[in-house]
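Q: Hi! Curious about what Short-chain dehydrogenase-like protein looks like structurally. Here's the sequence.
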Amino acid sequence: MASYLVTGATRGLGLEMVTSLASLPASQVSLVIASGRSKSPAVQKLVESSGGRVVFVTLDVTSESSAKDAAKEVEKVLGGKGLDVLINNAGIMNYSPNGINTMDDLESSFKVNVASAHIATSALLPVLEKGNLKKVVNVSTSLGSIAMSKNYALFPVPAYKVSKAALNMLTVQYAQAYAEKGFTFVTLSPGWCQTDLGSSAADLPSDVGAKAVLDIVYSATPDKNGKFFNIRVPGWEKKEGLNQYDGAELPW
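A: Let's find out. The predicted structure is below.
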């Protein structure tokens, strides 16, 4: 029985992950904490139908005070037990179609895509330390890989790419700092999913992407600490085109 907290869980990939986790037997997932700045109708419906296994905790991941308040609420919800898994999923992607020199969203992108993961993680570390699994999973993107940057040069989202590359390094820093305490920090690329962020033109339905992300979460063990993974989707391992989803470790 494991407990999970997912940030950015009111819609898109985060909501799909919470939904998928809640569908598993209680013997596997004891509690799912969905978090966001405010409760969406979809999350409210899920909470009401979950029989108490899904709860919502208000968390603005860009606010340290909100994160501290959320951590206190999480402690109450868990009844003194530890949190097993934190999935830092919240993120934004804006466009700079006229070139990187016109990019005006770098600061906001860093705040939501990088600082938020640090804010949430640092606030929740005390309750994570009491957990059995001690997993922190940061949702990044292959667009944040410097080694693969030429592959994605056509996408005019420089602030997204730069901030996700920074998120990858943040993951490594935490992985190194907390390895001796039994933590596992990993970062992953969730693929191009059909969400508000990814658009309807994306490769994967959001539920398929969510399942593939959770497969990595489930299999994350201390020997994978500090690594960067691609999702695996059957049939996409050697797909022609830009994206393949083979479950392999991605280059930095």
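A: A fun detail: The helical segments are 12-22, 41-49, 64-78, 106-129, 158-178, 206-219.
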